[in-house]
Amino acid sequence: MGAEIYRIYAIKYAHHHRMARDNFIGGDIHDGPMPIDYFVWVIQGAGRTIVVDTGFDRAMAEKRGRAIVRSVEQGLTRIGVDPAEVEDVVLTHLHYDHAGNHHLFPKARFHVQEREMAFCTGRCMCHAGLRHPFAAEDVKAMVDRLFEDRVRFRETTDTLYPGITLHRVGGHSDGLQIVRVNTERGWVVLASDAAHFFANIGRELAYPVVYNLGDMFEGYRTVRRLAGSEDRIVPGHDPQVLAIYPPAFDDAVGWIARVDLPPTTSPTY
Ligand SMILES: [Zn+2]
Ligand SMILES: [Zn+2]
């Protein structure tokens, strides 16, 4: 194992109430309330701070009927990160809940899969069903950054820094990438939307927002393989993350968790 060891914070910024049947293709025989949380993640260590995804702001929350609990900026501030100083932002994909808050990171380089940029600026966006999870303003902000030389296109399997690797899985969005991070307890995989919930991956049930179902199912296997064990997979939207991982601070219960540390209990599927 390499020398670089990182801490990882999962920061919840928004919430949405929904039913389990809304989270799985084919529904769920155990239908009932199954709310969704919205997160950004921060990787820190070896003198580096890397933000993974940028969330959405209040204007977008209003437009999409979501509830901001605490803004992304508040979460970053709580862990001592000044967004204006952040140099590296990984965007797992460009859906509205992962690629907003454009004003927050004026100095950052944005690491993204070339295929994601091609996807959200290409002919698939002629179809309302594929266009819906994207916001034109987020895509336009990325084009502006591209012309400011602030976009770094990553290889399908790439090393961001020693101990941090990026892997395109596609499926949910064509250029979706996941982030694997070396921690005290070994590799931890930030699955982002390659696994919205523990149940998507644990029960191999597809999430209904999908571009390529085959890639989505393959992605579940890739996440498992890269993590090595189930307790080192961090899903992108599951409220259980905040319940099973230790809070980053005493006052951050239900808000910010340390996912580089081992979970204290197992999730339910
Ligand atoms: Zn998504
Ligand atoms: Zn998402």
The strand count comes to: 13
Number of domains: 1
> CATH first level: which class?
Alpha Beta
Q: What's the CATH architecture name?
A: 4-Layer Sandwich
Strand content: 25-35%
The averaged pLDDT comes out at: 96
Helical content class? 10-25%
* pLDDT < 50 stretches: none
Net shape: globular
CATH topology: Metallo-beta-lactamase, Chain A
Largest sheet: 8 strands, mixed
Number of helices: 8
Structural class, from secondary structure content? Answer: alpha/beta
Question: Would you kindly provide a written description of the structure presented here, covering whatever features stand out?
Answer:
The chain is an alpha/beta fold and 269 residues long. The chain has a single domain, classed as Ribonuclease Z/Hydroxyacylglutathione hydrolase-like (Metallo-beta-lactamase, Chain A), CATH 3.60.15.10. It is 23% helix and 26% strand. The chain is built from 8 helices and 13 strands. The strands form 2 sheets. Strands 1, 2, 3, 4, 5, 6, 7 and 13 form an 8-stranded mixed β-sheet that branches. Strands 8-9-10-11-12 form a 5-stranded mixed β-sheet, covered by helices on one side. A hairpin with a 2-residue loop joins strand 8 (157-161) and strand 9 (164-168). The protein is globular, with a radius of gyration of 17 Å. The site of one zinc ion has 6 residues, from loops.
